[in-house]
Amino acid sequence: MTRSILCTLLIIIISCGNALARQTAATGNPKETAAPAAAIAPAAAGTISTEEETPATGNAPASEAAIPASEAAVPADGQKQLQALKAAEVQSPIRGKKQFLPTRRRIDREINKLKFAYKGEVIMGLTASYGTMSSDDTDIMLILDGIDADGTVATVKPFIGYFYRDNNCLGVRFGYRHMDGNLDAARYDLGESNDASGSIPKVNFNSDNYSFGIFHRSYAGLDPKGRFGLFAEFELSLSTGTSKLSYQPDTASDNMKTTFSDNTQLKLAFNPGAAVYIFPNVCATLSFGLGGIQYTSVTQKDDAGNKIGTRKASNMRFRLNVAAINFGMTVHLWDKKKK
């Protein structure tokens, strides 16, 4: 019985030893693999080619002398690729830096590639607009008829600017605007069922405004020769002026009552447009007022100059204003593109 127990213990010890040997071979224990790797390293080192030359003393570079055993077993071509990857990793300026994925690169749309105006140019110009309205015995929706009205709007705005860099201009603008309108006669009729009809008294309106503003204009050329271009303009302006409103309080009398108003407006406007050189240094422009942000303050006074009321309003409105379509002429001084 003692003999059988000893045999059983011997079998268990042998089985454990075999299992431990297999586990060590699978995990690559350095203690067991160091000797074979060290034996292989001298033979493999002779096949490794590097870009650095070995000095005459016979001392190999430190990078070659410290080749790990796991790399020594790699074929010569594989070791060349491995050394190239390590050299690129050492020389890389972004080593150790984390990059966000996906990486995005800025797209250069080359808007400023085509030059329309050059740095150092000075422009002097004038924009103007004029519009009239007239109606003779006009009917509107069969409610108002016999309307006799007319009006005029005229605007003149001289300006001067400097191109602080290619296609970008900063300048100042002065302006004058005149408006007048007359309503001589109009009748309204809401129908027999409503029993409401009558006539609108005479009304006369007259306004004069002066303005001062600064603007920034960015051009974009449309052709390589720089003859045609588009521009986007932002303008911050302050305008002030007076208006006069006269109306007939009683249709049976010809007496007119008049009120005066002092107007002040601060406005940030967006005015895009197009430009074309009609002469080498003369450019014609067409701009459109698309609205913006504005603040308006109005103070009303009677005939004797007494204050009778005030009104303040602020709004943001972006839409095409037919009264703000301006034709202009610009002269470019000190043309840099000839140099």
TrEMBL record:
Position of the signal peptide: 1-21
Biased composition (Low complexity): 60-70
Region entry Disordered, spans: 46-70
Name of protein: Outer membrane protein beta-barrel domain-containing protein
Keyword Signal: yes
Species this chain originates from: Alistipes shahii WAL 8301
Keywords from the named record: Signal
